[in-house]
Amino acid sequence: MMHADKVVEHIVNWMTHYSEQSKTKGFVVGVSGGIDSAVTSSLAARTGKPVLCLEMPIYQAASQVSRASKHIDSLKSQFPNVSSVEVELSPVFDSFLQALPESSDETRDMALVNTRARLRMTTLYYFAGLHSSLVAGTGNKVEDFGVGFYTKYGDGGVDLSPIADLTKTEVYAVAAEMGVIQEIMDAAPTDGLWGDDRTDEDQIGASYPELEWAMAFIESEGNLDTLTDRQQEVLKIYNTLHRSNLHKMLPIPVCSIPQELK
């Protein structure tokens, strides 16, 4: 069983050391109302360094905005080093849409969803530059290294990843240890990019515990003959997403020029 208190201490020390080594002053965290950003911002707050929590709604569901605000208020009441800014990005998104050529292509919606994440990344780095701070990522292990459930150069564009070695289940354990508000603990995980109430499980087709099982099964080279029909389905979902999103997880490929051609 994971020692959540010691994990919290370890990550906080790691973040503190990384900030000091990089000669930066603190952290900027995008807070969405979900468990991952709540945990990341709570860990950053415990470093004692300045932490700026950013809310960046783009036609966001009211429940997500409310949860984010309550979490930030809770942090600010406990940690004097935490401040917050809300940047309403809906008008920016609208202006971007107006500048684009019209299209009925079925991939347009996904491209625009990723655009939302990239507008937020740009905003995070604006404030990070303004305050000489690091952008702290909010991705967990299953998202970042399993199914690649994030936007390249969107929420994947960060300076450091404090919780990327924790599964979603472990993230919840760390959240409980730090006293993250119950409303966030109880909320179904969602990326909040579609402007509706669809959850991560709706999009992926499997729950996080199922994906964690698949990740562990592959790592342990388990016996396929022992699997139930649902386990086989989950394994297929996991493998399909892992393969299609591998380009996000690997370093950018560089074309190496043979010396004789130079």
Topology of helices and strands:
Elements (H helix, E strand, L loop, with lengths): L3 H18 L4 E5 L4 H11 L5 E5 L6 H17 L3 E5 L3 H10 L8 H23 L2 E3 L5 H7 L20 H11 L3 H5 L13 H5 L3 H12 L9 H16 L1 H4 L13
Parallel strand pairs: 1-2, 1-4, 2-3
Helix pairs in contact: 1-7, 2-3, 2-7, 10-11
Radius of gyration: 19 Å
Low-pLDDT residue spans? none
Our estimate of the beta-strand percent is: 5-15%
Main beta sheet strand tally, sense and closure: 4 strands, parallel
| Strands ordered across the widest β-sheet | 3-2-1-4
The 3D shape can be described as globular
Would you identify the CATH H-level superfamily? Answer: HUPs
Tell me the number of strands: 4
User: Which CATH top level class fits?
Assistant: Alpha Beta
CATH topology group = Rossmann fold
Order of helices and strands: HEHEHEHHEHHHHHHH
The structure class reads alpha/beta
Word description of this protein:
- The protein is an alpha/beta fold and 262 residues long.
- It has a single domain, classed as HUPs (Rossmann fold, 3-Layer(aba) Sandwich), CATH 3.40.50.
- It is 53% helix and 7% strand.
- The chain is built from 12 helices and 4 strands; from the N terminus they run αβαβαβααβααααααα.
- The chain has a 4-stranded parallel beta sheet, sandwiched between helices.
- Strand 2, helix 3 and strand 3 (82-86) form a beta-alpha-beta unit.
- It is globular and about 55 Å long.
- The model has no long low-confidence stretch (mean pLDDT 95).
